[in-house]
Amino acid sequence: MATRTRTPRQVRQEKAEIAVNYPLDWLEERSGLVGGVRYFLFRKVPSDTNWFHTLGSATLTAFLVQAATGVILAMYYKPDPNQAYESVQHITNDVTLGWLVRGMHKWGASVFIILMFLHMGRVFLFGAYKYPRELNWIVGVLLLACGMLEGFTGYLLPWDQTSYWATVVGININGTAPFVGSFLSQILRGGAEINGDTIARFYAIHMLLLPGAIFALIGLHLYLIVRLGVTSPPWSKEAAGRERPPEPPSNGRAGLIRPGPRRGISR
Amino acid sequence: MSTRPTERPDVSPDGDRSGVMTPLEERRAEFKRYKEDVKERGKPFYPFAMFHDTVMSLVVVCVIVALACIWKFTAHESADSSGWLGPLYKDKADPGTTSFVPRPDWYFYFLFYLLRIFKWPESVLLGTVGIPTIALILLLAVPFIDTRRERRLTRRPVALVAAILVVLSMGVLTYKGATAQEAIASELKAKVPTWIKDQNLIANSKQVRGLPPGSNPQKLVVRGVTIFSQVGCLTCHTYLGSGSSNLGAPNLSAEGAKQKGVQFQINHLQCPACVNPGSPMPSFAALGNDNLLALATFLESSKGKQ
After folding, report:
1. Do A62 and B112 touch (CB under 8 A)?
2. Where are the beta strands (DSSP E) in chain B?
3. What is chain A's percent helix, strand, coil content, to nearest 5?
4. Which residues face B43 on adjacent strands?
5. Alpha helices in A77-193 (DSSP H)
6. Which residues, 6 or more positions from B215, have their beta carbon under 8 angstroms from its beta carbon?
7. Could you give the count of Cα atoms lying within 13 Å of A95 in the half-sphere of its Cβ?
8. What secondary structure letter does DSSP report for B48?
9. What digits encode the pLDDT tens for the residues B153-175?
């Protein structure tokens, strides 16, 4: 019926729509990714989420800035005790906008750490680590630890006096650990003293091992957030999951006076 | 008929609706209510929450770019001119250096300062590994320590006080770490006469064995103590309460009491890792043999405060 009443214009429009949607449909049919993204975007969140809830995504943004600037720095940086310092100078002085990329990486690290702590503080104050979100708190603490280790390993790479001697302190701190201490500091140094092996080792940990771990943990973190939902602010009158006034006994007949079951059980 | 039967197998089926729920049942019921509330009254993530997230992310990127620009443009031209956010770069790493100030990035200042509180060697383990490990374990255990459903802060006094104490102590430690002054050579040099007196160095030096024939122990020890105060030994070691134990290096006040001998001290100063495998101490061979002999004499004369 409807087909008969369509104007040529409408037919053209529909054809165009199909053509535009074709790649998405193709992708959806083979991967289900479009549905996944749609679910992610249009999932419901509590109506009273506010600016405090943006700290997590802000931390993610800071990490992505670190990842992007880190990739660019890796194109110019040389993890070698004879060239590291000079390559950082080269990035700062000669490479187009190199100072900006290095500056963003250097200061982005501080912003990332601050935001991780603020986000953790928000989750703690909101009591958002409670059932059933315990696991996500643990993943978050692991992310914090990885982030701090990124700071520690990245600090050596400019190979200046401060970074060198701070790393000596840091490795000595590990060295005092009972039983594993000397073993641990040997591994970190890659030998008896800090040299070219140490710098290559810290570089690999800094740009391969830890970022990989952080990406994986962020994936898990986000999966758990989507699965479990974010908590309402605890002070909110509208808070999702609040205690409700006691419901009338369910053995009465639903009808004129007593309303039927409040929530559809059909789900 | 929907009679809200429990969907959980672990809830007793005799349907005691007015009865007390176990804490686990209460938590499950709350989460079920949460899911229902969000489904009924929630807002879609896009565009509402995502708008906030996008604005905040843009702010973050702008702050990072601004910091990079401030750092660059207040410190331009000469490499070591310090801008508002510090110099663009410091001197190149020199493992053979004898004066340096080990300083981590600011977010490790709290750890850095813990090392000053717990002195080598009796309690240093607490500051290096003990307290950070305990803190990490406690942090991981937070959801298992606090299992109540209550989320309102005013009804969580323990959590509130704990949070305030943690923030305060981290703040104080970071501040103290940031403002901690390293001992500078001129201050230390002023202590040389006191050290000579307190340690009885002149008298002790006459008992030092193994000096080359014809050398004057008194002159050597005075020269040694002066070098000691100036070449940076006290950035890692402590001596009669001066110096710093940041690097966990031993107190040298009673080094001579160990009777290791002048030759051992010289060998050790020339190549610490050869004598003491794994030692992170840099080589002081660059000082030259005469100076090393003086330093060794001084160390052997230091028998601890009497």
Report:
1. no
2. 43-44, 238-239, 242-243
3. 70, 0, 30
4. A45
5. 84-93, 98-125, 134-156, 161-175, 181-189
6. B293
7. 20
8. I
9. 999 999 999 999 999 999 999 99
Q: Is B94 close to A164, i.e. CB distance below 8 A?
A: yes
Tokens of A130: 């409670």
A171 shares contact with chain B (CB less than 8 Å): yes
Task: Tell which of B56, B113, B275 to mutate to test the A interface (max A CBs under 10 Å).
Answer: B56
Pick the CATH number of B185-301 from 1.10.760.10, 3.30.70.1060, 3.40.50.740, 3.20.20.70: 1.10.760.10
Smallest Cα distance from B240 to chain A, Å = 22
CA distances from A141 to A177, A265, B209 (A): 21, 37, 57
Interface contact A99-B248, CB threshold 8 A: no
As a whole number of angstroms, the distance between CA A46 and CA B207 comes to: 81
Architecture in CATH for domain B100-180: Orthogonal Bundle (1.10)
* Superfamily (CATH) of domain A50-228: Cytochrome Bc1 Complex; Chain C (1.20.810.10)
ipTM above 0.90, yes or no: no
pLDDT in tens, A190-246: 887 788 889 999 999 999 999 999 999 999 999 999 999 999 999 988 889 888 777
> For A160, which of B91, B106, B115 is closest by C-beta distance?
B91
A161 and B94 Cβ atoms separated by less than 8 Å: yes
A170 CB neighbours in chain B (<8 A) are 104, 108
Put simply, whether A50 touches B (Cβ < 8 Å) is yes
Does A96 contact chain B (CB < 8 Å)? no
B213 — alpha (psi -120 to 50), left (phi > 0) or beta? beta
Cβ distance A89 to B89 less than 8 Å, yes or no, reads yes
Residue A59 · residue A119 · CB < 8 Å: yes
Helix (H, G, I), strand (E, B) or coil at B214: coil
A-B contacts at Cβ under 8 angstroms: 284
- Cα–Cα distance measured from residue A153 to residue B67, given in angstroms and rounded to the nearest whole number: 22
**Domain boundaries along the sequence of chain A:** 50-228
The pTM of the full predicted model, rounded to 2 decimals, is: 0.80
Q: How many Cα atoms are found within 13 Å in the side-chain-facing hemisphere of B158?
A: 6
| Residue stretches of chain B with pLDDT short of 70 | 1-19, 76-81, 96-101, 119-122, 181-187, 245-248, 278, 305-306
